[in-house]
Amino acid sequence: MAIKTEPSIKGFIASDPRLTFNDDGQARFYARIGQNHYHREEDGTFTELEPSFHDLVQFGKGAELSADRFIKGDKFIAQGYVQDYRHVVDGQERTDEQFVAKRLGHDPNLTTYTVDRRPRAEREAPAAERDSASRSAARPAPEQAGVEHDGLGR
């Protein structure tokens, strides 16, 4: 069986992300994103070029999670697809591209974060229920509850 692949992008969140809901209650995460570009010189060095800016959207539960997790300036990696969309700018209808993220996460090479390996049910339990359960259950060793990463394997 062949390896399944999908388009992906990396960049940084360039605007304050927005979470909106359509008439059916479906969540929509929107952020203007930037992508850095470089030119390789003949001597092997790189010259940084101006970044390009694009629209990124995400829908559903993922959109709600991303709205809680991302702020302007965060570095990310996203998996999804590019689609054209029409909108009105200064009274003129125009077509632009947007990246529709199926998955969106912080770039582990550029972001320090903590991994929470507790079962999903335990992470999503209401606070009162979680507090009650934690008093009666044995606690995992700290090295099992979360792992510190600095994005460089340390």
From TrEMBL:
Residues 115-133 have a biased composition (Basic and acidic residues). Keywords: DNA-binding. Residues 134-143 have a biased composition (Low complexity). GO terms for molecular function: single-stranded DNA binding. The keyword DNA-binding applies. Gene3D superfamilies: Nucleic acid-binding proteins. Residues 108-154 are annotated as: Disordered. This is Single-stranded DNA-binding protein. It comes from Microlunatus endophyticus.
